[in-house]
Amino acid sequence: QVHLVESGGGLVQAGGSLRLSCAASGSIFNINAIGWYRQAPGEQRELVARITRGGSTTYADSVKGRFTISRDNAKYTAYLQMDSLKPEDTAVYYCSADLTYYRGSWTNTDDFWGQGTQVTVAS
After folding, report:
1. Among 13, 45, 48, 74, which is disulfide-ready with 36 (CB 3.0 to 4.6 Å)?
2. Are the CB atoms for 123 and 12 separated by under 8 Å?
3. Separation CA 107–CA 30 (nearest Å)
4. Using 50, 70 and 90 to split pLDDT, how confident is the model at 1?
5. What's the longest Cα–Cα distance across the chain?
6. Helix H segments across the chain?
7. Are 16 and 8 in contact (CB under 8 A)?
């Protein structure tokens, strides 16, 4: 079994900062890419940022220069530092990991999702 748990969401004033964490646990062999996604009410889920095992990053245009994704491979944890937050950043934020895990004597690779954490930015 593999689990992803997000934390760090909350209510913040516009211009403020939050740091989200995504911790993976279970029979993990290797975590490949990790992504942060968000979904606002009535909207489609969208990719916010993504980081590969080697550290290459991708950001949505709307968050470039404000958000920073990072990861600690030894702790199976990823972070999303969110600065200069805007009301339009309000959403449920999810992390997703493409990871390889042990399944008996074998390994398997699949995508896993966390349960989400609410971020609300007040104007």
Report:
1. 48
2. no
3. 10
4. confident
5. 53
6. none
7. no
Contact indicator for 102, 27 with CB cutoff of 8 Å: yes
pLDDT per position as a tens digit, 42-96: 999 999 999 999 999 999 999 999 999 999 999 999 999 999 999 999 999 999 9
Say if CB 3 and CB 27 are below 8 A apart.
no
CA dihedral sign of residues 91, 12, 61, 34: negative
pLDDT at residue 21 tops 90? yes
- Give the number of other Cβ atoms within 10 Å of residue 34's Cβ: 28
